[in-house]
Design a protein that fits this description.
The chain is an alpha+beta fold. 19% of the residues lie in helices and 22% in strands. A hairpin with a 5-residue loop joins strand 2 and strand 3. Helix 2 crosses helix 6. The protein is globular. The protein binds 2-oxoglutaric acid and fe (ii) ion. 2-oxoglutaric acid binds next to strand 6, strand 8, strand 9, strand 12 and strand 13. One of its GO terms (biological process) is oxidative RNA demethylation. Its cofactor is Fe(2+).
C-alpha cells in the first residue's frame, strides 16, 4: 500500500534500506526500457540550459507505462540558470506564494531581497517559502482552477516544457499552470493525484533541482503498491498516458553526494543562459540544504480557450 511505503521511506529511525529504490544513474533494464529511439531531435535548444538531445539518457519504467525519466539533461550553467530563476524571479509577483497569506512581506518587499540581505528577518523568512503557483493558480483547498485566478506563465518555463514535449513527441503541449515546491531537508509531500486539470491526457512535466528526493509512485488507488525512485538535481519525470493519474509523493529528501551545479563542463553554453555570479553565490547556499521541484501542466483541452 502507498501509505505503508511512504511511512517506510519517511522513517529516520530505523533508517530505511534503499536497495529497492530505482536508481537511473545505474539503470536496471529489467525495470526500465531505453526511450531514446522515440525522441525527435530537430534542433538543440542551447538557450534553455539543456545539453543536445543526442546526449540525453531517457527511460520508461516497464511497470509504470507512460512514466518517462530524463536523466539530468541540463548543463552546469543551465542548472544554475534555473535554480536562480526559481529563487529570484519565480518567488515574487505576479506569482502566488504560500507566504502571501501570512502577511510577512510588505508591499515593497520580496522574498529574495529580504532573505539574502543579511537581516534577522531574512534568516527567519528563508525556510518559510514552500510553494509558488503560476498561470492558472492551483487552489489547495478546492483543487479547482478558475478563470479569475490566472496570471501569465513565465516565458522560459513555457518554452522549456514545450521543447521537452516536442522532443518526446507529445503534440501541442501548452504550459498553462505550474507549481514550484520548495523543500527543506526535513520536508515531505504527502501522497496525492494531480487531477484538477480538465485535460489529464496531456503530460505533466516535473523537474527537480538541488538535493535528492525519494519519489514514490503508486497506482490509481491508495491501495496499490508503490515504487520508489531517486530524483536528483536536473532529473525530469514526465507523467503521461496511464501514469498521469497515479498516486505519488515525496517521503524523504536526502543530501546529494555530488552537486551537478558545480560540475566543470566543456562546451557549456553560458552565452544563452545568463545569470550573475553574486546571485549564484546566494542561490548556492540555499540549494545546499534544499530541493526545488517545478511541475508544469496543461489545463485546457486542445482548442479550449478558457474554463468558462
Ligand atoms: O516534488 C516532487 O517531486 C513532486 C511534486 C508534486 O507531485 C506536485 O507538486 O504535484
Ligand atoms: Fe503531484
Amino acid at each position: 500500500m502507498f501509505k505503508d511505503s511512504f511511512k517506510y521511506y519517511k522513517s529516520r529511525k530505523p533508517c530505511p534500506d534503499l536497495k529497492d529504490v530505482i536508481d537511473l544513474n545505474n539503470p536496471d533494464y529489467n525495470k526500465v526500457t531505453d526511450f531514446r529511439k522515440r525522441l525527435l531531435d530537430e534542433q538543440c535548444e542551447y538557450e534553455l540550459g539543456l545539453r543536445p538531445v543526442k546526449d540525453w539518457e531517457v527511460f520508461e519504467l516497464r511497470n509504470i507505462p507512460g512514466l518517462i525519466f530524463i536523466k539530468n539533461p541540463f548543463t552546469t550553467y543551465g542548472q544554475r540558470y534555473w535554480i536562480i530563476k526559481c529563487l529570484k524571479e519565480y518567488s515574487r509577483e505576479p506569482h502566488k506564494l504560500n507566504l502571501d497569506a501570512h502577511n510577512v512581506l510588505n508591499k515593497d518587499e520580496n522574498w529574495w531581497d529580504i532573505c539574502f540581505g543579511n537581516s534577522d528577518k531574512g534568516k527567519e523568512l528563508l525556510p518559510k517559502l514552500r510553494w509558488a503557483t503560476f498561470g492558472y493558480h492551483h487552489n489547495w483547498d478546492t483543487k479547482l482552477y478558475s478563470e479569475t485566478s490566472r496570471t501569465k506563465m513565465p516565458t522560459e518555463m513555457s518554452l522549456l516544457t514545450s521543447f521537452l514535449a516536442q522532443t518526446l513527441d507529445f503534440k501541442d503541449f501548452k504550459a498553462e499552470a505550474a507549481i514550484i515546491n520548495y523543500y527543506r531537508m526535513n520536508s515531505t509531500l504527502a501522497g496525492h493525484t494531480d487531477h484538477s486539470e480538465v485535460n489529464v491526457e496531456a503530460p505533466l512535466f516535473s523537474i527537480s533541482f538541488g538535493q535528492t528526493a525519494i519519489f514514490l509512485i503508486g497506482g490509481l488507488t491508495q491501495e496499490d503498491a508503490a515504487n520508489a525512485m531517486f530524483l536528483r538535481s536536473g532529473d525530469i519525470i514526465v507523467m503521461s498516458g496511464k501514469s498521469r493519474l497515479r498516486y505519488h509523493g515525496v517521503p524523504k529528501i536526502l543530501p546529494t553526494i555530488d552537486a551537478p551545479w558545480d560540475d566543470i563542463e566543456m562546451n557549456d553554453n553560458n552565452q544563452h543562459c545568463t545569470w550573475n555570479e553574486s546571485d549564484w553565490i546566494k542561490a548556492k547556499t540555499y540549494i545546499s540544504e534544499a530541493r526545488i521541484n517545478m511541475n508544469v501542466r496543461q489545463v485546457l483541452k486542445p482548442g479550449q480557450l478558457s474554463l468558462l
